[in-house]
Amino acid sequence: MAKGLASGCINHPGIEAVGRCKQCGKPYCGTCQIIGPTGKFCSDQCKSNHEVFTQRAQQLDTMKKSSSIGAKLFILAKKLIVFSVAALIIAVVLAFMGVNVPIISEMLNR
Fold first, then answer.
1. Which of 12, 14, 24, 26 has minimal CB crowding within 10 Å?
2. Could you read off the pLDDT of 36-75 as tens digits, one per residue?
3. Maximum pairwise Cα distance, the chain
4. DSSP category for residue 43
């Protein structure tokens, strides 16, 4: 451990810790250290908890990416509707002002 940050192991207070658990942050000694695919931990429970957390985070990230396509389509549809309504309002105003807007002028003259 870094100088000035030395502490005793959570399970063996008389032995200097060599690191801190990636899950809970508690100090551990070389004997207690559990190495997993996602880091170093103070216990099997912390290792298991972190692996579950990592898997869930990956699932949420995958869900977010797949739902972002739907969100983009929804935003595109909203923009298309706003554009269409704005174009219709402009066409009606122009038709009332006497400008020939073929479709709108025919509807207003009926």
1. 14
2. 998 999 999 999 999 999 999 999 888 777 667 777 888 8
3. 96
4. S
